[in-house]
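Recap from last week: sequence in, structure out.
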Amino acid sequence: MSRKAAPCAPSLSTINCPLSTALIIGYGNPLRSDDGIGWRSAELLAECLAGQDVEVIPCHQLTPELAEPLSRSMRAVFIDADTQGKPGRIRRRVVRAETAAASAFTHTCTPSALLASARQLYGHSPQAIAITVTAQSFEYGGSLSSVVLAALPKVVKQVRQLLGVAPPGSNQLTEQS
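Predicted structure tokens:
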């Protein structure tokens, strides 16, 4: 089953739907330079994973409505810009559901709170990974800085490898800290 990029507000009428293999959520503001790395990654992944059992959602921010598509996935990947570290640095970490996060129902959701909401509201939350790229600039502009743009194909490659759809001939990636 192939799924293309979906809008940020999925329908809530999917009770008893089969689980998809994976959900990719790339978020950030593509009009704030490097903050758009998540969005841009999601767009590229939607193209290169066409025909795979993967749902890709590019969005400006995490919202409570994302708990529903998370509940329908076996694995999830969150992609976002980061403010910590050397610009262009890619980090990967496991995301776990944290039920104490009341922010899941406010303007600022976190991946952990969304996983907790998916479990609480729909009975399932997927295994999840967050991939972040340290930004160089959050200034107004529609282009990524050169250092973050150079990280973009590496992010796409990492996600493909995590999902087991790496291009032929590539080696499995080791965890980065």
